[in-house]
Structures are given as structure tokens and as C-alpha cells.
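Please fill in the sequence for the structure shown.

STRUCTURE ENCODING:
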């Protein structure tokens, strides 16, 4: 955000909502084929959002079911379930799919969406891998417990103090010295990565080749993704979305920052190698008749990172390899994230790249609305120029019917997704389709929801609380007791068409 220069508060674009007849004739509410066997009833799309409602060990809860049920009641063409971990490791209240014991809960989730959407919504699940990110430590704990005391560190202290005795110092003496040292000393004797671990929390990179488990990622990840996709199919999902975006493992392999020397880093051909191997292994496991899509970045928006030119090239390779759709995002990287508070983890949506992922009404002259559409448009154009028709999904600041319809009419995307607007009003697609667009509860794009996500709180929308009756026996509140946990219910007025 700090790189945007002069900032302007943008009003919401005016909206002219279509009649039911106009909506029925529109591109946005027309069907689209995804893969060989799946047809979405319309090109409306809810991208993956993490609601922080799973159990601490990754199981589906009643709150998870209600979250997706409310989106399903709006009957989008496609609903993508949150980033779901493919490993059987602790990851907090995020869904997991790293073992067969998660299948029953996920199957209940599928059945819930089928029922509440009346069979109209296609349901995909996003598959995610991530490497270690630790919370920012309290300095005394960092020096007393976490910092590795190496001969190199001892040598740096000896040089700084001009005292060779520090080369043989006991680890406890080094820890005590650093705990009391001033900032200049720390910046002089610690490496950049050690200083980062102190200031931001320890964070692994996929090019940390000194770590055996990082070296083994190209061998470990394809079967992990493939088994996760198999579980998704067994649970009844219509498809899977491979998460190759933002700050996570697969996006880091695609990044220009990836300098692995083992054939999986450096040149584009090497950086795309593992993502293609994962796609091929997943495809072999679930078959050609199952939808496999990819969510990836049109631009990393960080110094030295991948840009649109890379994304176009990657998109063409994914299309050649038979991916069933490409969903394009932007930014959301760790490299430019703001420093977290002690005890909190670095959050990849706080820097300029994070802003570009979720732009707000406080913006530069371009504004937030449809800000990232040109990325998807360029990727789609290149794919079509290569003679392929892989569907491309765009998102980012989508707020009106006419905006979405114009994107499709110009050939900039094949589907138009909306996360924050759908969070504000899960029924908005259905309201528009039934000619009730004037009843849409419009997102204000202030990122209240993103602030909750950053603090790992149950994600809600502040607009829901404008219809809060504490005496309502059906009302469920978030764990803090202050917010609605689900959007207000909606039923079409008596004169609206059925559907």
C-alpha cells in the first residue's frame, strides 16, 4: 500500500441491476464447461476464502458447514472450498485433507452444499502445501532458545569486539551477550536470516537446500497432492484447485526468487517443472474425467519476483499440460509483509503485494474495482493465440453485474469471481438472477474481513451486524460474542421468479 503514492478514497461504482429476463440472457449467467464432464450452470464464482472455523486438528465443524451452506444458498456456478492442507500435520483451525479420516467430514460438507444450492452449485476444494512460518519471538526467548550458536556467529562477535576469546565462547555466554546487546551490534553480528527470524519470526524458503525436507520437496509433493485429490474425489467434490498462488510452497517454486540448483529453480523451465509434475501426478491419480484447476499469480508484485510475462508463459504450459481452468490472482507475498507484533506470525497481505491481492477503496487513481482483470485478460489472450481454450477465471474488486458482464463481453475472462462481495451478501448472485439486484448488500471494500483473517479470528462481514437482533433465538455469534457468525438469511419476495 505504501508504494501506491497519492491515495484517494473511491466511492462504490453505481450499479444498474438487470431484470430477471436480462440476467437470463447474460453471459455471466450462462453455462460453461469445465473439463470433460462438468458443466457449471453459470459463470459466477466464489473463490477460496479461509473462515477459521475448522477444529484445531483440521476437521469439518458445524460452523464450517454453515459457512459453505450460506454461500450455496446464493447458488453460484462454482464454489471453491478454502485452502486445505495436503499434509497430516497441525495447521490450526484450517481444513485438512492429508489422511482418509478427514473424508467423512468433507463428504458431509459436499452433501450440505448440494442440498442448500438445490444441486445448482459445482463444488471444488483448493489443495495447499506450505513450509514452516513461526511467530515473531520475544527477543530473550529467541536468544535463549531458538538462535543456533555457530562458529561463524562466534567469529563475528570476536571481530566486532576485537576479542579473539569469543571464538571459543560457551553457547550460554554468547546467548547472554546477545540478549543484552544493542541494535547496532545485532545488525553487525547476525546474518540477514538470523535478524529476520528475530524481527519477523523464522520462515523457511523452498530454496533452503541445507534442510533435508526442503531438498526432498520435488519427490514428496506430487504424491501428497495426488492422494489429497483422490480423497477429494472420494468425498464427492466436483474437482480440485491446486493452490500455486500467494506465499505458499508451489507459488515459491514458480517465483523468480527460486534459485534452487537442483533443476527445480532458476530458469522458467526449471521453476515450472514441479508444478507440472504435481499436475501430471494428480491427473494420473484422479483421471481425465475429473476437474483439476490451478490458482496462480499473474504478478508477484515483489522486488525480483515473477511478473506478467512469467505468468503468461506459465499459463501456456499449464494449458498445454491439460489443466481444466486457470484462476488468476496477484501478490500476497511474504517478502514485503509488514513486521508482526511479538507473538504473531508474519501475514503476507500487509505489504504492497498484499494490497494488490485485496485492493480497498483507499487506493491510487486506478482504484480497486476490477484492478487485476488485465492480468487474466493477457493470460487468456496468449492461451487463445496458442490455439487453446482453457477457461480463465478473474477476480479482485468485482462489485456489480455490469462490471462482470463487461469483462466477459470483452473476452477478458471466462468466469468472474467475487470473494468479498459474496461474503458481504452470499445471496447476491441469486438476487441478480431473480431480478432482485436492488436488494444486494454491497461490499464496502474496507477489508474489515481481511483484518479478522490476519488475527486468525472467525471471518465475518461488518454489514451482517446491521441486522442483528440479540433476541433472535436462531442467531449465532462469533466466539467473541460480538458479531454474527453467518449472514442474515434471505428469501425472494413473493413476486420474484422461482429459483
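FILLED IN BY: designer on duty
SEQUENCE:
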Amino acid at each position: 500500500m505504501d508504494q501506491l503514492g497519492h491515495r484517494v478514497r473511491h466511492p462504490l461504482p453505481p450499479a444498474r441491476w438487470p431484470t430477471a429476463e436480462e440476467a437470463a440472457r447474460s453471459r455471466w449467467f450462462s453455462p460453461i464447461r469445465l473439463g470433460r464432464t462438468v458443466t457449471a450452470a453459470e459463470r459466477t464464482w466464489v473463490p477460496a476464502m479461509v473462515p477459521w472455523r475448522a477444529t484445531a486438528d483440521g476437521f469439518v465443524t458445524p460452523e464450517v458447514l454453515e459457512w459453505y451452506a450460506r454461500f450455496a444458498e446464493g447458488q453460484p456456478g462454482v464454489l471453491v472450498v478454502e485452502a486445505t492442507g495436503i499434509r497430516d500435520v497441525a495447521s490450526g483451525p484450517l481444513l485438512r485433507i492429508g489422511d482418509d479420516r478427514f473424508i467423512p467430514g468433507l463428504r458431509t460438507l459436499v452433501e450440505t452444499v448440494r442440498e442448500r444450492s438445490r444441486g445448482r452449485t459445482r463444488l471444488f476444494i483448493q489443495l495447499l502445501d506450505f513450509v514452516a512460518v513461526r511467530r515473531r519471538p520475544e527477543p530473550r526467548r529467541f536468544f535463549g532458545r531458538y538462535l543456533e550458536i555457530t562458529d561463524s556467529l562466534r567469529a563475528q562477535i570476536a571481530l566486532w569486539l576485537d576479542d579473539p576469546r569469543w571464538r571459543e565462547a560457551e553457547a550460554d555466554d554468547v546467548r547472554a551477550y546477545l540478549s543484552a546487546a544493542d541494535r547496532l551490534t545485532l545488525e553487525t553480528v547476525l546474518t540477514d536470516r538470523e535478524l529476520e527470524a528475530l524481527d519477523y519470526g523464522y520462515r523457511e524458503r523452498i530454496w533452503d537446500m541445507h534442510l533435508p525436507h526442503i531438498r526432498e520437496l520435488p519427490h514428496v509433493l506430487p504424491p501428497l497432492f495426488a492422494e489429497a485429490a483422490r480423497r477429494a474425489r472420494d468425498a464427492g467434490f466436483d474437482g480440485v484447485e491446486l493452490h500455486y498462488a500467494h506465499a505458499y510452497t508451489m507459488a515459491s517454486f514458480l517465483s523468480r526468487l527460486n534459485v534452487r540448483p537442483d533443476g527445480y529453480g532458476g530458469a522458467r523451465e526449471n521453476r515450472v517443472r514441479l508444478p507440472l509434475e504435481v499436475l501430471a501426478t494428480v491427473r494420473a491419480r484422479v483421471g481425465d474425467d475429473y476437474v483439476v484447476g490451478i490458482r496462480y499469480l499473474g504478478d508477484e508484485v515483489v522486488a525480483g519476483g515473477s511478473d506478467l510475462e512469467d505468468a503468461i508463459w506459465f499459463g501456456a504450459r499449464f494449458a498445454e499440460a491439460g489443466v481444466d481452468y486457470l484462476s488468476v490472482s496477484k501478490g500476497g507475498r511474504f517478502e514485503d509483509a509488514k513486521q508482526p507484533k511479538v507473538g504473531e506470525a508474519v501475514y503476507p497481505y500487509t505489504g504492497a503485494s498484499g494490497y494488490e491481492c485485496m485492493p480497498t477503496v483507499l487506493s491510487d487513481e486506478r482504484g480497486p474495482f476490477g484492478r487485476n482483470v488485465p492480468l487474466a485478460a493477457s493470460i487468456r489472450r496468449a492461451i487463445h493465440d496458442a490455439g487453446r481454450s482453457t477457461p480463465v477465471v478473474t477476480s479482485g474488486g468485482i462489485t456489480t453485474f455490469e462490471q462482470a458482464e463487461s469483462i466477459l463481453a470483452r473476452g477478458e475472462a471466462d468466469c468472474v469471481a467475487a470473494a468479498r462481495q459474496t461474503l458481504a451478501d452470499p445471496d447476491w448472485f441469486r438476487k441478480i438472477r431473480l431480478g432482485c439486484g436492488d436488494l444486494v448488500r454491497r461490499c464496502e471494500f474496507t477489508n474489515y474481513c481481511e483484518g479478522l483473517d490476519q488475527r486468525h479470528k472467525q471471518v465475518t462481514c461488518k454489514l451482517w451486524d446491521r441486522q442483528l437482533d440479540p433476541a433472535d433465538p436462531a442467531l449465532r455469534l462469533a466466539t467473541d460474542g460480538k458479531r454474527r457468525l453467518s449472514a442474515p438469511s434471505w428469501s425472494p419476495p413473493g413476486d420474484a421468479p422461482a429459483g
